[in-house]
Amino acid sequence: MGLRTTLFLAAALAGVGVVVATTGMAAAEPGSQITILYDAFGSDAAMKKDWGFSALVEISGKRILFDTGNDPDIFAANVKAKGIDLTSIDFVVLSHRHSDHMAGLNHVLSVNPTVKIYAPKEGFGIYGSSLPSSFYRKDESLPPEMRYYGGKPPEVMKFGTAWQGANIELVDKTTEIAPGITLIALVSDAPGTKELKELSLAVNTADGIVLVVGCAHPGIEKIVEAATAINPKIRLIAGGFHLVVAQDEVIAKAVAALKDTFKVENIAPGHCTGEPTFAALKRAYGDRYLYAGVGTSLPLGPGMGSGARRGEGPALQEDDLATYRKLAHREDPFGILKARNLRSALSHL
Ligand SMILES: [Zn+2]
Ligand SMILES: [Zn+2]
Fold this sequence. Notes:
The structure is a single chain. By secondary structure, the chain is α/β, with parallel strands linked by helices. Helices cover 29% and strands 23% of the residues. The chain is built from nine helices and 15 strands. The N and C termini lie far apart (74 Å). Mean pLDDT is 85; it is low at 1-23, 306-320, 328-333 and 344-349. Residues 96, 98, 215, 217 line the site of one zinc ion.
């Protein structure tokens, strides 16, 4: 290969590199931050604690409400306590159909009825769906009164949503909804939540991906793996990792995957991550563990993870633990009591 050709190729490749690096990348300007609006632990006395998740993600000039908590009144109170104006949000992302993530949507709609809402597309789901009428078998020998729609079905059959009239856009597969802002769509394979579809928010910044997860039912490792396809550098993960009933070896494996395999730089776990996982992540990440109790704002500016706010607040406080345990036990939302009973039943054998 001649020198000229080599130089030409090098220049062309460099050009491609620049295009790749600048396309689909959002800015994490100094004002960028994630504010936790709903969770069952926290040290902010102005905020109410309850099982569930919601966060306001302000990044790339967008204000994104990710999930809406478990109880509309508590959600409304926490939004008010933080002085957040829900009429000025750009869009809502509902991670999945579990009520501890979507119960506050009625409050959002009462304030901002036309706001765009992204939700996972599931057959006959609560967010609504549609199917071509060709999906069902026909029998033309039947009289019209025994046939669906008298034998003349509409081309597309629509199935209702719990929020009739809301501006819901269903997301079926991983989609970049704005430059650098991608909704990762994955399906859970875990017993109890099989076929549950969940959306995670991946924002590609100049410093790597900022990833916000709701419950991580498809598996936190699978979600991170999908995010690395956008950009292998993962700057921060916030949200619920769904290890709330996981045994120590499962937790250790997940922590090792995040830290060593995917080299996730900063971690801000909350919600269903689980107390022993909080402890394990705190041990593994040290001051790159960003405390993210309800009411906490995590700055995403260039100094994230290296400034005075790094490791802000204690990983866990005694009253947080008490609340967390009480809530986790009250409704047994993740089969904690069932698992414990099973364990004690087994220990009698
Ligand atoms: Zn949840
Ligand atoms: Zn869930």
